[in-house]
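Before any further analysis, we paired sequence with structure tokens, yielding the entry below:
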Amino acid sequence: MKKVRKAMGTAVAALLIGAAAATVSGAQPETPPPPPTPEWVNADGTVDESKLPE
């Protein structure tokens, strides 16, 4: 009888841990993508003043 109780306790604990992990992983908000780079900013991050809007 003790073996059955121990097995049931282990199974319940495993289910609770699995459910908690699934809840935590699904609860994280998705990070939105960064905004597009303006046309006056070069690939290296410098600003091309000739392309700045007026």
